[in-house]
Structure prediction request, 180 residues.
Amino acid sequence: MKLLIDFFPIILFFAAFKIWDIYVATGVAIVATIAQIAWLRMHHGKVEPMQWVSLGVIVVFGGATILAHDETFIKWKPTVLYWLMGAALLIGQLFFRKNLLKSLMGSQMELPDAAWRAMNWSWIGFFAVMGVLNIWVASHFDTDTWVNFKLFGGMGLMVLFVLGQALFLSRYMKTDTPES
Prediction:
């Protein structure tokens, strides 16, 4: 269910784009993100900081897209979001000596500090590359291709990256073996 809630705005954006155009789709994404935040707030009482950041980015870049009637702004939105997430991890690591991934997920899994560092740096690199890749696709292909990439390419690369992370982390996972 959480995964559906997380992808709710992008799926509606994609559907609205295919039915209407980029401007209607952008408005739908803004409304869907606001609805997503409201639903999370009502059902969980709490909204994660990155979800608030995502709301701010879609409202600013989506609003600029609609007001200026220029799709360039919405095409920059994923890049800005990727780079903000990567920057948060980087700043936490370099300036505060705090691994934000460990802070978020440390209660769910036990890993050595070296593994947490490797995972943190790999996410920083992933977000940097995804930001560049989004802008490259947005500037070298038509809007329809970019929208398809945003949904299928972006999500596909994310799934592959997470699977790679799972393989990396599997060597650190403890398995409970029954005693004979």
Observations:
- The chain has two domains: 1-70, 78-172.
- The chain has a mean pLDDT of 92.
